[in-house]
Amino acid sequence: MTAVKEIDHAHRSHALLGASGAHKWLNCTPSARLEEQFPDTTSEYAKEGTLAHEIAELKLRKYFIEPMSSRTYNTRMNKFKRDEHYDDEMDKHTDTYLEYLKELSMSRPNAPFVTIEQRMDYSDYAPGGFGTADCIMIEGDTLFLNDFKYGKGVPVSAENNPQMMLYALGALKKYGILYPIEQVHLAIIQPRLDNISEWVFRREDLVIWGKNLVKPKAALADAGEGEFVPGDHCRFCRAKAQCRAYAGQFTALQDFGAPVKKPALLTDEEIGKVINIGQHLDNWIKAVKEYALSQCLAGNEIPGWKAVEGRGSRNYVDQDKAFAYLTEHGIDENILYDRVPLTVPKVEKLLKKKQYDELLVVPGLVEKTQGKPTLAPAKDKRQAITSATQDFS
Ligand code: SF4
Predict the structure, then answer these.
(1) Which of 84, 133, 234, 273 has its CA 20 to 30 A from that of 301?
(2) What is the distance between the alpha carbons of residues 190 and 208, in angstroms, rounded to a whole number?
(3) Which class for 393: exposed (0-12), middle (13-18), buried (19 or more C-beta within 10 A)?
(4) Are 63 and 100 spatial neighbours (Cβ–Cβ below 8 Å)?
(5) Choice from 23, 25, 29, 237 to test ligand 1 binding pocket (greatest atom count within 8 A of CB)
(6) Could you tell me the distance, in angstroms and rounded to a whole number, from the CA of residue 243 to the centre of ligand 1?
(7) If you average pLDDT over each of 185-189, 266-270, 336-340, which comes out highest?
């Protein structure tokens, strides 16, 4: 086991060809250089994720690397708890991550080598490429790369995950001489979505991927060359508000043509295409509007648009004082508050899992109703249904 300095998660440096953006620059090679001209802003979600990673790191460090007294641990935890982005759920989800890793290490015939928050250098494949791997274990001939994801937008799959595969290339470089690594086990633990995704593949295939795919694409990306290829990866691209190629996929809706040349009604194939394009439309328009607003505020002209003051909202100067004054003047306190019952998911969040099961599930006080049919992408893991297979009455 190794002792290393704790990482400053909020100020990690980023490589041009960073692992977390690999999905983007491997698919659209000119994006890396194009993005350079846009500021790298941090969202509230990212700050929340950073804090969750810091808490996870503390827990892993305590269990695997440097046993610490309860006092030291509590002092460090309390510092995190004072952060405005902290909530109790974070404690629960980082525990889930720790439990997964504990089970993984205990399931191995020998105690694995464990290291956390290590910088992985994969610059042999991508110029200047490095990133920080959350937790690496090595036991026998297997390299285990574990990644904690705090997002709850979409479940992330470990299969062919370029971010983790790049870390694996870095880990091979760092530990491949010391350990007889023959296979790689990737795991993504995303507790807020109940998602644990695992994928195992051979060292040999990883190296082939690195040489045949990453190396040439990374060389193009480093030079800012290649084709602009829009796709799902544009979601996190800093250039998306102004990117011509990204905009092009939305205006491509016109390609369906005039009724004279083509049938008046769209075919089912075209309908599928419309939904594919349209699912990113909201996100794109939002990014474009944000960009246009920043231009107007900077005094630049966006033809047909201007910045104005939005609607303000009314707030109590001091709510307690205002309510006290109202009740003193004969207003019934009860009408000043809404008493709203908590939903099942909110109560579940408040209680411990065991308590929730004992108090609500076992006595039969909660029921699960059948979900309404909904449209999902073909790659969604849920089984496809039809009116013939399901009774929706
Ligand atoms: S928005 Fe998409 S197509 Fe445009 S540069 Fe970024 S990743 Fe490439």
Answers:
(1) 234
(2) 28
(3) exposed
(4) no
(5) 237
(6) 6
(7) 185-189
Reported as type and span, the H/E element at residue 34 is helix 31-35
CA 202 from chain centre, in angstroms, equals 26
Which atom of ligand 1 lies closest to the CA of 243? 4
Angle of CA points 191, 196, 200, to nearest 5°: 150
Tokens of 238: 């800093």
- Alpha carbon nearest to ligand 1 atom 3, residue: 230
- Class (C level, CATH) for 9-223: alpha beta
Ligand 1 centre to CA of 321 (Å) is: 52
Q: What is the pLDDT of residues 35-65, one digit of tens each?
A: 999 888 777 888 999 999 999 999 999 999 9
> In angstroms, what is the span from residue 167 Cα to ligand 1's centroid?
23
Pocket test for ligand 1, best of 31, 235, 286, 291 (most atoms within 8 A of CB): 31
| Pocket of ligand 1, beta carbon within 6 A | 24, 28, 31, 34, 228, 230, 233-234, 237, 239-240, 243, 245-246
Taking alpha carbons only, the member of 278, 289, 281, 279 closest to residue 241 is 289
Q: How many angstroms does the Cα of residue 14 sit away from the middle of ligand 1?
A: 19
Domain boundaries along the sequence of the chain: 9-223, 240-297
Neighbours of 123 (CB within 10 A): 15
Tell me the pLDDT band of 13, cut-offs 50, 70 and 90.
low
Q: Are strands 130-139 and 195-202 parallel, antiparallel or unpaired?
A: unpaired
pLDDT tens column, 309-341? 988 899 999 999 999 999 999 999 999 999 899
Q: Which atom of ligand 1 is nearest to the CA of 229?
A: 3
Q: Rounded CA gap, 148 and 134, in Å?
A: 7
Q: What is the DSSP string of 297-335?
A: HTT--BTTB-----------SSHHHHHHHHHHTT--GGG
